[in-house]
Design goal:
heterodimer, A: mainly alpha, B: alpha/beta, 6-stranded antiparallel beta sheet, 15 strands, 19% strand, globular
């Protein structure tokens, strides 16, 4: 089920009302059933994967906790990793691997090829796999006690607001909230609704409308002028940001209606002064996951410089590969690693990198630099292949081509984009629900009215799937 | 309790806001949204109030072949048999019963329709059509026509409340259906389902005269298998349900209902794949005739009516008929219609006389190509002209088989019309195109501005062409204006005349 679908508009209030009508001890059953139904709207049979993942990790964690010998614990961890990452490999990475192996075979003159799979990628598999992996790893390292209630554990894996595209929550944060007794509270309803409306607006009105023009640029790049291509690249930044940020806000808002607080996933990333800060502000739940479960176990920064460089490269490359089974994503991650290391070195050399006053001249200048860098790096993320990405850069630096198309963006789209940029600057280091508290009732309702009018009349009617659903 | 009161107040406020929004939307925005997202409504609006017989169908009604002398659709050909009856059509390419039902439902209540003829396309019951990717835009175009307050429909449209299954999922749905639907036949058959049959055909291939595999014919045979090798289950097929809804609607509205089972290229199916495939086609036709006849609907079985040579698309499975095919279908329907309109029926002569002078003032439809460009914005005579601009680059087009024109008159061609151009920089051109087979024997454009010296005024344009010994034996002649620019050009009173060469 998509957040921006009519089914969700019926589904969410029904579940929220039932949630508060249901006695506390049965609420997990309601939410678990709702979560599975939510997922099955997309593809009924793939819910089995979530169930298997849940059951395996539930028992593995308990056995791991009971196991005295380190080797047995390790064996159980490997079992969990094999199941979780095995599914991920099978559904997400198999075709990529098969393609590369076949290419190798062909170049070596071996007359054999691996068959390709026609299975659809299960929506959200990377998200719920990482969520449940964090649980198993926490139990393995003794940071967490294994959950004995299968129902609550299953709910932690599949809680519908964040099931398919995060935020990737930790057990220690989410599970206690799922178990807690929540009373209906006006503040939760109000703030939840604010986030949902704002999230729907930025997804349906801004991201989806921009998608049309970005697609034009990416599908027929050669026909557009260099300036139009650059415009298209910038618009993609705003598209993907609004698309994912919108999704995250709806997820946070939906959970909030029931009194459950999910973590923030974005904090005005395009005002980041450098790549490091960008990753502290972009897809925060994933960045912190990689920090805690990959970067720190590798030794973090408490290692030799060369080893630290290696750690950074591994984290970014794996992060790129997490996003998609393609060389473009690996390259995308690699680019971040290189720029991150260069920035770090320059800052150290020049003594830069200290805190600047928000919106000071130097902050704006550095943010602009980061914006430009990230915009160009997105090209590898959006392109279907490395050669397509390189062609785009080639077209940009060769303006004297035959130009047959002009990128015409309606004024209303620019107006909405400007509205978003201004509102996002106002929301620097805060969030829409909290920000609206400052205003009187009429101002608040006028804002809601504008957002609703935008959603109803200016949403792109074409179905543009959430970009991060493909991961 | 306080919290519920607080929420209730806000819910009421929201409902009041929706009412206000509905009022404003209906008054100022609904029509432009209908034109933008549901212009299918125009097909229904174009049905005159005094229509007595309504023909509803897909592209089979309107498809033509360049050598058709009579380019009228099947629905218009019916008028020959019922000259006193008002007959109208709703033609939606790629349409099917699910779409027809919605369109018939929104037909004006004051309309006088007595009889509705609904196209029953055999292939529309197969998986490829049911799960076709064309469904996404078709279903979306119906959202604003639902029986809800306009603002609710607009919300439904924004929240994609229509079938918007992705392309990959649709492809999977088709494959799954093909895999699941196991053939149940009264004779021994080597293939379990359509996938096996299709694979076998692709593997063994069709041989040409030299005994080599003919890829094109093999592909076509595979298309035929995928298009027709299915067995309709009247309990589960969604299309059956759509037709049943139409039957219910007809009962409510007191319409006479006729289902016109379209002709299929059974000759080609037998030739390419064999009698087994024909068995499927005939069995499905029989199922449909029996099923709907039992429900009191008159079903005309035209399955074998049209011969192979009358199918326009020889390299694909379509129900697109050339002139004679359309005439045969129209006659078959006309004869069936006697049940309801016996007194108005006349025996029509379907022979088309050759002409050598052609004139179109665009006031009424003549079923020439590109009549979509008829516009009331400007006119030299009457109210209509043909508007040509970037949106519709080609004007109403004259297209005619040259060999129909008597030899004695096939010597000289005169073309004349009135043209209106907004500026003298306009690059619109008039084309005379003469084609033999796939070869363009003549395709010379003439700039309109070469004869038009004044902008924003109706001016005469004329040209002549002597048909030399090469051109005179060509197949098809076309005359049209092409304007790829934003500035529109208007054409009126287009006259094409063949005559003797002036010595």
């Amino acid at each position: 089920m998509l957040f921006n679908s009519i089914e969700f508009i019926y589904f969410l209030p029904t579940i929220v009302i039932l949630f508060f009508l249901t006695p506390h001890k049965f609420r997990w059953i309601l939410l678990l059933a709702a979560s599975y139904i939510f997922y099955m709207f997309w593809k009924v049979e793939y819910v089995v994967l979530i169930v298997i993942t849940t059951i395996v990790d539930y028992f593995v964690a308990i056995w791991m906790e009971k196991a005295k010998e380190k080797n047995k614990r390790k064996l159980l961890l490997i079992l969990s990793l094999t199941f979780n990452l095995g599914f991920l490999f099978l559904f997400k990475y198999y075709n990529f691997a098969a393609g590369n192996v076949n290419q190798l075979f062909a170049s070596a003159g071996i007359n054999h090829s691996l068959p390709y799979s026609s299975w659809l990628l299960p929506v959200g598999i990377s998200f719920y796999t990482f969520q449940t992996l964090s649980y198993t790893l926490d139990v393995y390292f003794g940071r967490l006690k294994a959950e004995r209630h299968l129902g609550y554990f299953a709910l932690y894996v599949s809680f519908f607001p964040q099931l398919v595209a995060g935020p990737i929550e930790r057990f220690t944060r989410l599970a206690p909230q799922l178990k807690a007794k929540h009373k209906i509270e006006y503040e939760n309803i109000s703030k939840g609704m604010r986030l949902i409306i704002y999230g729907l607006f930025i997804k349906m009105v801004i991201a989806d409308n921009l998608a049309t023009y970005v697609d034009q640029i990416y599908t027929q790049t050669e026909t557009y002028s260099s300036w139009d291509i650059l415009k298209g690249l910038c618009l993609y930044y705003f598209q993907i940001y609004n698309d994912f940020y919108g999704y995250s806000l709806i997820a946070i808002g939906s959970a909030r209606l029931m009194g459950i607080h999910l973590m923030d996933n974005f904090k005005t990333p395009y005002l980041a002064k450098n790549i490091m800060e960008f990753w502290q502000r972009w897809h925060i739940s994933l960045s912190t996951w990689f920090r805690d479960y990959l970067y720190f176990p590798l030794g973090g920064n408490r290692v030799k410089k060369s080893r630290w460089w290696f750690n950074i490269c591994v984290v970014f490359l794996v992060s790129g590969f997490w996003h998609g089974a393609s060389w473009t994503f690996i390259f995308w991650g690699g680019l971040y690693a290189i720029i991150y290391l260069i920035e770090k070195s320059i800052n150290k050399l020049m003594g830069w990198g200290k805190e600047y006053k928000p919106f000071s001249f130097i902050h704006i200048l550095l943010a602009l630099k980061t914006f430009i860098l990230v915009t160009f790096i997105w090209v590898f993320f959006r392109s279907q292949s490395l050669s397509e990405a390189l062609h785009i850069f080639n077209y940009i630096i060769h303006p004297n081509r035959e130009i047959t198309s002009v990128l015409t963006i309606p004024t209303v789209v620019w107006v909405f984009l400007a509205f978003f940029v201004v509102s996002d600057i106002l929301l620097y280091n805060t969030r829409f629900d909290k920000f609206m508290d400052k205003f009187s009732f009429p101002i608040r309702w006028l804002t809601y009215a504008i957002l609703i009018v935008g959603i109803v009349f200016y949403a792109n009617v074409e179905t543009i799937p959430f970009i991060y659903f493909q991961f | 309790m306080k919290i519920f009161f607080k929420i209730a107040i806000r819910v009421l406020l929201f409902i009041a806001f929706l009412f206000l929004l509905n009022f404003g939307y209906e008054k100022w925005m609904l029509e432009s949204d209908l034109q933008k997202y549901s212009d299918i409504i125009n097909l229904v609006r174009a049905v005159p109030e005094d229509t007595e017989i309504l023909y509803i169908g897909e592209s089979s009604n309107i498809a033509t072949r360049p050598d058709d002398v009579d380019k009228r659709p099947i629905s218009a050909m019916l008028e020959d048999f019922y000259p006193t009856k008002k007959i109208a059509d709703i033609t939606k390419p790629a349409g099917h019963a699910g779409i027809y039902y919605v369109l018939l439902k929104v037909l004006s209540k004051s309309n006088h329709v007595k009889t509705v003829i609904v196209t029953l396309n055999l292939r529309s019951f197969n998986a490829q059509w049911i799960y076709s990717d064309l469904e996404t835009s078709l279903q979306r175009s119906l959202v604003l026509l639902r029986n809800n307050p306009p603002i609710i429909n607009r919300i439904l449209l924004s929240f994609k409340a229509s079938d918007n299954t992705s392309l990959a999922e649709r492809e999977q749905q088709i494959q799954l259906k093909w895999k699941k639907d196991v053939f149940h036949l009264p004779f021994k058959f080597p293939y379990k389902n359509v996938i096996e049959w299709d694979n076998a055909m692709a593997h063994q291939g069709i041989k040409n005269e030299k005994g080599e595999n003919d890829d094109q014919l093999t592909q076509l045979a595979c298309h035929y298998i995928k298009g027709y090798a299915f067995q309709i289950d009247t309990n589960t097929n969604v299309r059956i349900k759509d037709f049943n809804k139409i039957i219910q609607l007809a009962k409510q509205k007191n319409w006479n209902l006729i289902f016109n089972l379209l002709p299929e290229n059974t000759e080609k199916a037998k030739e390419l794949v064999g009698k087994d495939l024909y068995y499927f086609m005939e069995e499905n036709a029989k199922i449909l005739v029996d099923y709907f006849s039992k429900k009191g609907v008159m079903v005309i079985n035209n399955l074998n009516l049209v011969g192979n040579e009358e199918y326009i698309d020889q390299d694909w499975t379509t129900e697109h008929y050339a002139m004679t095919g359309r005439q045969q279908t129209a006659k078959s329907i006309a004869l069936a219609l006697r049940k309801f309109h016996q007194n108005s029926f006349v025996e029509a002569n379907q022979n088309v006389a050759s002409q050598h002078v052609f004139f179109h003032d665009f006031e009424k439809k003549k079923y020439w190509n590109q009549e979509i460009t008829r516009s009331q914005e400007k006119a030299y005579s009457g109210h209509y002209s043909s508007k040509v601009d970037k949106e519709n680059e080609y004007s109403v087009t004259f297209e005619y088989p040259l060999n129909i024109i008597p030899d004695s008159l096939r010597e000289n061609l005169n073309v004349s019309f009135k043209a209106y151009i907004s500026n003298l920089d306009n690059k619109a051109k008039m084309y005379i195109t003469i084609i033999k087979g796939d070869e363009y024997l003549y395709n010379e454009p003439v700039l309109l501005r070469s004869q038009i010296s004044e902008p924003k005024k109706w001016k005469s344009f004329s040209t002549s062409l002597t048909l030399d010994s090469k051109l005179v034996h060509a197949d098809i002649i076309k005359v049209f204006v092409h304007n790829p620019e934003n500035d529109p050009v208007y054409i009126d009173d287009l006259k094409i005349e063949f005559d003797k060469k002036i010595e």
